[in-house]
Design a protein that fits this description.
The complex is a heterodimer of chains A (76) and B (632).
Chain A (H helix, E strand, L loop, with lengths): L1 E4 L8 E7 L4 H9 L7 E6 L4 E5 L2 E5 L1 H4 L2 E6 L1
Antiparallel strand pairs in A: 1-6, 2-3, 2-6, 3-4, 4-5
Chain B lengths: L1 E6 L6 H9 L3 E5 L6 E9 L2 E7 L11 H13 L3 E7 L3 H13 L4 E6 L1 H6 L2 E3 L1 H8 L3 E3 L8 H13 L13 H7 L10 H9 L3 H10 L2 H13 L4 H17 L3 E3 L7 H7 L1 H52 L4 H7 L4 H30 L1 H13 L9 H7 L3 H7 L6 H14 L3 H11 L3 H25 L8 E4 L7 H35 L2 H16 L5 H10 L1 H13 L5 H13 L4 H11 L1 H26 L1
Parallel strand pairs in B: 1-4, 1-5, 5-6, 6-8
Antiparallel strand pairs in B: 2-3, 3-4, 7-9
Helix pairs in contact in B: 3-11, 7-8, 12-13, 13-15, 13-20, 15-22, 17-18, 18-27, 19-21, 19-27, 19-28, 20-25, 20-26, 21-26, 23-24, 24-25, 25-26, 26-28, 27-28
The chains are: A alpha+beta (76), B alpha/beta (632).
């Protein structure tokens, strides 16, 4: 179990969101509207050309700059 | 009359429900002082009528976007008798917190779990009875695209409205700090005191102002004391609190068997190379075959050529010539630039088939889930232009109607992006009417068509890049939900196409008629010839015949008029070869049409609209001249 940014995960890897590393309210709310909040499990589906994650039953496409703010504890 | 408000995120089927409830008696209006549209209609259930409001997406009572703020204000001002919360069943854990917020704000709520069929396919099982018990409001499972569950939902709505009870009994446990602040409040509000207290603690400016007006001094001191104890990020903590609350309610009620959905087609769409191939296929089938060949070719021939040109207009013209003495009036109606012979003929004969086939293709792409994936794929291409993948939506719509596309730039987050997108739409995105005619003109000589494509595409990217470096600010990062790929329901696509067509005709038809009148006036007074003549030096500069002046003038009034004029000159053999290419390029880049300019002024302000139009003119003439030198 390591703590890494979502942008550092490998495709197919699962993890649990532990922290959103920003205080920018607009970004926090945007992420929240997509269900990206601490405690939720995610799976990285794709990192090229940009990040795609699966969260619950939803697929979400994200800019890498956002993915870098999402800290996860990863399982292998 | 009793009222119902529909609440829910985008893409959960809220609008389908709205149309199923109201039929087509609908009015769309901007919410006062905003650009956000609220749709309102009347529904009849069991002999009673009531008003239904469709709202833009809402995620929580703490708004981020203007849409959310408007939805909240609507709930506040209307205090509806019933709120129908429509959610995507498989994403219930994410959506339930808003249901709980609606309940805790004091509204009578029905929770609708839509897209139940997709949820089942994804391996989700929901115990509806226990869910309704725990949440304390009626729960209905539906699949609107197939019409499933609609009867049950209507029955439930009727039952609740007949009970004439508008306020929800509050039973949800509140966060201790909110509970404390709630007990300070004395006045009555459209929302429950719980909700007011929470928004106050989140330092919602609108609510703080209101509380200061309505509460006495003692209550205000009590609240201020509560606020002083609150941590900075309370809104985040409260959100987590609601999420946990929802999680507890869903324990043992919402089960999901995780099934990994590997999808080859989806993978292809998201890959750089596969995505590109798919764009080519979609452009070929959607734009070229359906809009170009079928809409602009077959349907235009049928409607404009045969129906209007050979049957309807000659008959009208015959009767008008009999009934009205020759002169100014007759010319205005059925002359060269007559309202009927030019305005109506273009509107119904040329524009209607082209634009409606485009809207049909666009609705299909929208509902299939391809557009968000296209946005993802294109994100990398958009970045150098200072845009992100979301800009794909207005830009692609621009190939249908630039005027409508400028309106849709509202969906972009920053003013900076809106300006860039508006510029690109004005300069380098030909609308479907123009595109159809240019394709028809140049397809006789594929080499010219290719050159045109490269030139216009090149100018698109270069001008985007220049704007990106000139404008202050930064590119906004991209985020977007990718809805599941699905085969769209035909009825839903038709409904969307129809709604857009109605808008188009309401907004654009008057412009057509106005332009006919203007052209008639210019011709009657001899001004048309004068303006055309004054354009002659510019035409010479571009190496084009003098008659092209009139074509460009037309092109400003309606872009497609211009292309149609070019078509006439080509047929008469006045323009050919290299000149044709120059003319097509300049016409594409030239000023946006009058209607689009009008909307640009409304949306971007006079200064930016004129700046963009001026640059378009400059770009067009420069490109035309350079091309002339190159071809010589």
């Amino acid at each position: 179990m390591g703590r890494i940014a979502l942008s550092q995960m490998r495709s197919g890897q699962r993890g649990k969101i532990v922290e959103l590393a920003t205080h920018d309210r607009t970004i926090l709310r945007k992420l929240r509207s997509l269900g990206i909040i601490p405690g939720v499990s995610v799976r990285l589906l794709r990192s090229i050309p940009d990040t795609v994650i699966e969260i619950g039953h939803t697929k979400v496409a994200l800019d890498r700059r956002y993915a870098a703010l999402i800290m996860v504890s990863s399982k292998n | 009359m009793q009222s119902i408000v529909l609440i829910g995120n985008p893409n959960v089927g809220k609008s389908v429900l709205f149309y199923r409830l109201t039929g087509n008696y609908v009015t769309v209006a901007n919410y006062p002082g905003t650009t956000v549209e609220i749709t309102k209609g009347q529904a009849n259930l069991g002999g009673r009528s009531f008003i239904v409001y469709d709202t833009p997406g809402m995620y929580s009572f703490s708004p981020i976007t203007e849409e959310e703020a408007v939805t909240r204000r609507l709930l506040w001002e209307l205090v509806p008798d019933l709120v129908v919360h429509v959610v995507d069943a498989k994403n219930l854990p994410r959506m339930l917190p808003l249901t709980l917020e609606l309940i805790s704000a004091g509204f009578q709520v029905i929770l609708v779990l839509n897209m139940m069929d997709e949820a089942e396919k994804a391996g989700v099982k929901i115990d509806l009875t226990r869910l309704a018990e725990r949440v304390g409001v009626p729960v209905v499972a539906t699949a609107f695209t197939h019409g499933c569950g609609l009867t049950a939902l209507k029955r439930e709505i009727f039952k609740l409205l007949a009970a004439q009870k508008t306020r929800q009994k509050l039973f949800l446990r509140e966060h201790p700090q909110v509970a404390k602040a709630t007990s300070c409040l004395q006045a009555q509000y459209p929302f429950s005191r719980q909700m007011i207290a929470r928004l106050y603690l989140e330092e919602d400016q609108e609510i703080i102002k209101l509380v200061h007006q309505k509460e006495n001094k003692k209550a205000q001191e009590c609240l201020a004391a509560c606020l002083a104890q609150v941590k900075k990020q309370l809104d985040h903590e409260l959100m987590l609190f609601r999420l946990r609350q929802a999680e507890i309610m869903l324990a043992g009620v919402f089960r999901s068997v995780r099934r990994s959905q590997a999808n080859r087609l989806e993978d292809l769409m998201l890959q750089p190379l596969g995505g590109f191939l798919l764009v080519v296929v979609v452009a070929y089938v959607g734009l070229y075959l359906i809009v170009g060949r079928f809409g602009a070719g077959y349907l235009v021939d049928l409607l404009e050529g045969v129906l209007l040109g050979e049957i309807v207009l000659p008959a009208i013209s015959f009767w008008f010539h009999k009934l009205i003495p020759p002169g100014v009036t007759l010319d205005l109606l059925v002359g060269d630039f007559g309202i009927l012979t030019l305005g109506l003929r273009y509107a119904l004969g040329v524009i209607l088939p082209i634009v409606s086939t485009y809207f049909f293709v666009f609705a299909w792409l929208e509902d299939s889930g391809y557009l968000p994936r296209l946005a993802f794929w294109a994100n990398g291409w958009m970045r150098p232009l200072g845009l992100n993948g979301r800009a794909v939506l207005p830009l692609t719509l621009g190939f249908g109607c630039g005027t409508m596309a400028v309106l849709v730039t509202r969906t972009l987050e920053s003013t900076r992006e809106r300006i860039i997108a508006t510029f690109l739409l004005a300069v380098a995105v030909p609308c479907s009417a123009q595109l159809g005619l240019i394709l028809a003109l140049l397809s006789a000589e594929p080499a010219l068509l290719l050159l045109w494509l490269i030139l216009v595409g090149g100018i698109f990217f270069i001008s985007g890049k220049i704007l990106n470096s000139l404008l202050p600010g930064q590119q906004v990062p991209f985020f977007l939900e990718l809805p599941p790929l699905r085969f769209p329901a035909f009825s839903a696509i038709m409904q969307k196409t129809w709604a857009r067509m109605r808008w188009y005709f309401k907004e654009i038809c008057p412009v057509f008629i106005g332009i006919s009148v203007l052209l008639w006036f210019l011709q009657q007074t001899g001004l048309l010839q004068q303006i055309s003549a004054s354009l002659a030096p510019v035409m010479m500069f571009l190496g084009l015949p003098a008659q092209m002046g009139t074509v460009f003038l037309f092109g400003f009034l309606r872009r497609d008029y211009g292309a149609a004029g070019l078509w006439d000159l080509y047929q008469q053999g006045i323009v050919g070869g290299g000149q044709l290419l120059i003319a097509a390029v300049v016409l594409t880049l030239f000023l946006p049409c009058l209607a689009q300019l009008g909307i640009m002024i409304r949306e971007r302000g006079l200064f930016f609209a004129l700046l963009i139009a001026g640059s378009a003119l400059l770009v067009a003439v420069t490109a035309g001249f350079l091309l002339r030198l190159l071809l010589a």
